[in-house]
Specification:
Bound molecules: nicotinamide-adenine-dinucleotide
Largest sheet: 7 strands, mixed
Helix content: 25-40%
Strand order of the largest sheet: 14-17-18-13-12-20-21
Radius of gyration: 23 Å
Structural class: alpha/beta
Oligomer: single chain
Distance between the termini: 62 Å
Number of helices: 16
Length: 471
């Protein structure tokens, strides 16, 4: 049995979670499964570590993060194999995720060092503040509760854990049950890295057991990444806490008549089908203006048909298995439903076990799930619109709003898109799937609340404390 990490120490339990190799279907590990009692002990330890964590100097926090980063870096090849095995992630995508994880730690270390009191301008129109000076310090909020999804099991854990260390917050993290090994690898890298006793726990568990992170008063901040159904429910339970929700999406990309179509088609193909579309900012809706829709369609069909699906250990594979076969069945049921409603399959549309072919559709009726819900699979739908303004309206016709991509060479259209798109981020000249670790990342509408990216996550894990001095 692989142990979990409770209060900074390895521990086993009576129950386990089986972890499978997602492509081979073979057992990979049996991981200790935490119950309510383990969470209680973890929270007690984290609560007890609050002041020790808060007392770490910025250079000490950065030192912990650098130490963890270098340990993870030494294990790079093993971590790539782990992502391929437990996540079914194609090996090229797995390498990118490991490198991004190292960057997340590096950026968090840099942010830890940048912490400093900020002077406050008191404004003196009435004369009331004359003779006073003020500054603000960001102080750690206290214990953080983290819940993470399966699709980036390493880097999305890093995006919670590394800012928590930088901010000085003890934490308890529950990783996705299908991919707990990556989170435990990050926990292992933090062992003996200089954190106070009991400061952190990584506890694989059944979902509902982790609801305590939303209800327990010792947790001051809940940060959840996952589906909107689970996220909003947890936010309701956590009504007394600060909450960050990084939820799903049905990201759109706009292509207009001024775009380089070969470049757009190549990028869209990767972003729609890469890692089987199991990314919250995977391209799901391809919105093309009428003047280029046919030409773009031709290029997309050609590329989609060439996409390699199957063995994630094959260097050429873009589409690996979905997280389980049930998900693959669901995705094809949505495709069938769209076809019954009038859509045409331009490429793909079939599956072999958990592997769904890169599937391109057009003509789906508004309201069909492939357009309006989150497919979270290798399925994208081409949508024709008369002009650029209609394209922007189409992007906004969604209950989600994470990121949007716009391929246009027209600067005024780019500016217009930035003005009106209801999303957390607009990417001009590339797909909505583009992300750098340091940027603010998160959504509006059903895509969530709050932002990640170390600087923004640290802000959400700290409270401003004001000092006023009569001078
Ligand atoms: P999920 O919502 O099923 O699970 C997410 C986590 O919540 C898992 O650890 C799960 O065990 C846990 N969970 C489930 N029920 C729970 C409960 N009642 N109480 C507490 N925890 C519970 O999501 P998933 O299938 O793992 O991940 C896919 C989803 O995540 C997609 O919707 C995707 O868009 C979203 N996602 C969002 C982002 C982002 O940054 N916005 C990034 C990656 C994934």
């Amino acid at each position: 049995m692989d142990p979990f990490l409770l209060a900074g120490a390895r521990e086993t339990a009576d129950a386990t979670i089986p972890v499978l190799d997602k492509h081979r279907g073979t057992p990979l590990a049996e991981v200790a499964r935490a119950d309510a009692g383990h969470f209680d002990r973890a929270l007690r330890a984290a609560d007890g570590a609050r002041s020790a964590m808060a007392s770490l100097r910025p250079d000490e926090r950065a030192g912990v993060l650098e130490q963890a980063r270098s340990r993870l870096g030494e294990r790079r090849d093993a971590l790539v194999e782990l992502l391929v095995a437990e996540g079914g992630k194609p090996v090229r995508a797995a390498r990118v995720e490991v490198d991004r994880t190292l960057t997340t730690f590096a950026v968090s270390a840099r942010e830890a060092l940048a912490a400093a009191d900020e002077p406050v301008s008191l404004g003196d129109a009435s004369g009331q503040a004359r003779g006073y000076a003020a500054r603000v310090r960001r102080v750690p909020i206290g214990v953080a509760g983290f819940i993470t999804p399966f699709n980036f099991p390493l880097n999305l854990v890093a995006h919670k854990v590394a800012p928590a260390v930088a901010a000085g917050c003890p934490f308890v993290l529950k990783p996705a049950s299908s991919t707990p090994l990556s989170a435990l690898a990050i926990g292992e890298a933090l062992l003996d890295a200089g954190l106070p006793e009991g400061a952190f726990s990584v506890l694989p568990a059944r979902g509902p057991v982790a609801e305590v992170l939303g209800t327990d008063d010792r947790v001051r901040k809940l940060s959840f990444t996952g589906s909107d159904a689970v996220g909003w429910r947890l936010a309701q339970l956590a009504w007394r806490k600060r909450v960050t929700l990084e939820l799903g999406g049905n990201a759109a990309v706009v292509v207009d008549g001024t775009a380089d179509l070969d470049d757009a088609a190549a990028r869209i193909t990767n972003a729609a089908f890469g890692q089987a579309g199991q990314s919250c900012i995977s391209v799901q809706r391809i919105v093309a203006t009428a003047d280029v829709a046919d030409a773009l369609r031709e290029r997309l069909v050609e590329r989609a048909r060439e996409v390699r699906a199957g063995d994630p250990r094959d260097e050429e594979t873009l589409v690996g298995p979905m997280i389980n076969e049930r998900e693959a069945e669901r995705v094809l049921a949505w495709v069938d439903e769209a076809v019954a409603g009038g859509a045409t399959v331009l490429a793909g549309g079939e599956r072999d076990g958990a592997v769904v072919q890169a599937t391109l559709l057009e003509g789906a009726a508004p309201g069909s799930r492939v357009l309006d819900d989150e497919v979270f699979g290798p399925v994208a739908t081409l949508v024709r619109v008369p002009d650029f303004e209609a394209a922007l309206r189409e992007v906004n016709r969604s209950r989600y709003g994470l990121q949007a991509g716009v391929f246009t060479a027209d600067r005024s259209r780019a500016a217009r898109a930035f003005d009106v798109l209801e999303v957390g981020g607009v990417v001009i000249g590339d797909v909505p799937t583009w992300r750098a670790e340091a940027m603010p990342y998160g959504g509006v509408k059903d895509s969530g609340v709050g932002r990640e990216g170390p600087r923004y996550a640290i802000e959400a894990l700290t409270e401003p404390r004001l000092l006023v001095e009569r001078t």
